[in-house]
Amino acid sequence: MYEATTKNGRSLHERAQTSHDRQHLENLLAELKDSWDTIGGKSMERYDKVNRDTFKFLLSVVKKYAARVNIQIFLVCFSQTTQAGGSAAVLRSIH
Asked: Which of 37, 55, 87, 90 gets the most CB atoms within 10 Å of its CB?
């Protein structure tokens, strides 16, 4: 949408009859660019904040359930190893 609007603005600028019209269109295009950059910057700040908050939440959940997660990871690895025929080696490494 931004690109289409600036393209139309430049087209109008090229077809402008007076220097006053050209200057006015230049000012409007500059204002549009500044607004777009501001909105984009705020959007990135919000995106980064959401990512940080999500990461903090997930990290807190992992810390809270660390023992359970380690057991689950072990069980998944154990079941994969036993399916591959290596259960005796895994059992020896546990004891």
From this structure: 90
